[in-house]
Specification:
By secondary structure, the protein is mainly α. The chain is 95% helix and 0% strand. It has one helix at residues 3-59. The longest helix has 57 residues, at 3-59.
Length: 60
C-alpha cells in the first residue's frame, strides 16, 4: 500500500469517525433538551407546591 493510499484510508476513517461523533452529539442534544424541559416543569410544580404549603401555613 502506497503512502497516498494510506493517507486516503486514514482520511476516510477520520471522516467516518467525525460523522459518528456528529450524529452522537445530535442525539445527546435532543435527549438533554428533553431532560432540561422535564426538570423545568418539575421545578415549577415544586415551587407551586411549596408556595401552596407556605400559604396554608401562613393562613393558620
Amino acid at each position: 500500500m502506497s503512502h497516498m493510499e494510506t493517507a486516503q484510508t486514514a482520511l476516510v476513517q477520520a471522516t467516518a469517525a467525525l460523522t459518528k461523533i456528529e450524529s452522537h452529539e445530535a442525539i445527546c442534544a435532543a435527549r438533554w433538551g428533553s431532560v432540561r424541559s422535564f426538570m423545568i416543569v418539575l421545578a415549577v410544580k415544586m415551587i407551586g407546591v411549596i408556595g401552596l404549603l407556605a400559604w396554608q401555613v401562613a393562613m393558620k
